[in-house]
């Protein structure tokens, strides 16, 4: 199956891309009173990911199916996002628009075609959530600004705003302060060691460095991204999940810049030569995918 994502440049399309992300760098610069951590991270969006098929209905219902049966429950972020947007439309829009929305009795039938690993650090759930918000905003003719959708998304997951706004970016705060950041054309091999890692568990590890020195966006250019970069969670995850360490060591033999994305378990290596990446992918003993980095999300390209 070809999971490289086409741009959504036709308003009548009912297929909507949910790109993956990689954290090219990730560090924690502080912690909030509510326990959430302030991060500094460079997010690279990819041209690879899940897809949502959406059919608009007029029965006020949100119906959801998923190619992965274990994700078909009502706690799926797609359903939660659709319901939250519906509530927002009814309660928060000015009277006229809210009334109009209720009169149309908008609903949707949504199918998620899942290819991204769950708990893999590539942001699959957050991207599904963001695409649901952006797509239904258009299909339900709500005309809410992306910033409003990003605020709604933040209440569902810290990684949702970047997927809503749609640019590879330098990300601060818990994930809501975004500065678009242009990255050079690069190919990535993403290796999936097969472990499902709980993000909350990694964030609560006492060994995590929580007080790294913050940098400014100006310092970023000196970091030699996407090749150089560090992930403050990598050593902790490798200690707890030997399969992640094994896959990382394997990948490092071919590309010394290999590292982990997010809270794991996926690992990636950047390449400026696509053929070289393909050669290494063909020798990989774990499931893996090849992707190209993009500065604008396939969800937004052509919108
Ligand atoms: C590690 C990253 O993937 C880097 O991109 C993200 O920061 C994680 O973002 P996410 O998966 O959208 O995270 P959420 O679903 O919002 O949060 C899961 C759990 O991780 C912890 N969490 C998350 C984000 C953050 N900045 N600080 C945290 O402490 C919280 O305990 C939270 O309950
Ligand atoms: N549509 C969805 N796709 C994947 N996971 C979902 C979805 N909806 C809810 N979840 C739940 O969210 C959790 C994390 O999923 P996800 O795959 O996004 O993790 P991740 O790739 O590690 O994300 P991140 O990099 O943002 O931490 C899973 O435990 C899963 O049960």
From TrEMBL:
Its EC number is 2.7.1.148. The keyword Transmembrane does not apply. Residues 241-283 form the GHMP kinase C-terminal domain. Pathway: Isoprenoid biosynthesis; isopentenyl diphosphate biosynthesis via DXP pathway; isopentenyl diphosphate from 1-deoxy-D-xylulose 5-phosphate: step 3/6. Pfam families: GHMP_kinases_C, GHMP_kinases_N. GO terms for biological process: isopentenyl diphosphate biosynthetic process, methylerythritol 4-phosphate pathway; terpenoid biosynthetic process. ATP binds at residues 117-127. Keywords: ATP-binding, Isoprene biosynthesis, Kinase, Nucleotide-binding, Transferase. Belongs to the GHMP kinase family. IspE subfamily. This is 4-diphosphocytidyl-2-C-methyl-D-erythritol kinase. It comes from Aliikangiella coralliicola. The lineage of its organism: Bacteria, Pseudomonadati, Pseudomonadota, Gammaproteobacteria, Oceanospirillales.
């Amino acid at each position: 199956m070809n999971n490289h994502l086409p741009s959504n440049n036709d308003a009548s399309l009912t297929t909507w891309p949910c790109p993956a992300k990689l954290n090219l760098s990730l560090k924690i610069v502080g912690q909030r009173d509510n326990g959430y951590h302030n991060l500094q991270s460079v997010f690279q969006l990819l041209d690879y990911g899940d897809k949502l098929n959406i059919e608009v209905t007029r029965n006020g219902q949100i119906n959801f199916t998923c190619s992965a049966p274990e994700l078909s429950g009502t706690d799926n972020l797609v359903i939660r996002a659709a319901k939250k947007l519906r509530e927002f439309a009814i309660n928060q829009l000015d009277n006229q628009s809210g009334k109009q929305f209720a009169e149309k009795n908008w609903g949707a039938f949504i199918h998620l075609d899942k290819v991204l690993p769950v708990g893999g650090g590539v942001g699959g759930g957050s991207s599904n959530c963001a695409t649901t918000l952006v797509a239904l905003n258009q299909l339900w003719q709500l005309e809410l600004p992306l910033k409003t959708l990003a605020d709604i998304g933040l209440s569902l997951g810290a990684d949702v705003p970047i997927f809503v706004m749609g640019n590879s970016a330098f990300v601060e705060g818990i994930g809501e302060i975004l500065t678009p950041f242009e990255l050079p054309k690069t190919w990535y091999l993403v290796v999936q060691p097969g472990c499902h890692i709980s993000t909350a568990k990694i964030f609560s590890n006492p060994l995590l460095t929580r007080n790294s020195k913050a940098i400014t966006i100006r310092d970023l250019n000196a970091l030699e991204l996407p090749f150089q970069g560090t992930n403050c969670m990598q050593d902790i995850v490798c200690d707890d999940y030997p399969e992640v360490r094994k896959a990382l060591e394997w990948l490092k033999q071919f590309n010394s810049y290999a590292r982990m994305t997010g809270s794991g378990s996926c690992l990636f290596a950047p390449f400026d030569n696509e053929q070289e990446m393909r050669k290494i992918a063909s020798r990989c003993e774990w499931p893996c995918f090849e992707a190209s980095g993009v500065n604008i999300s396939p969800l937004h390209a052509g919108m």
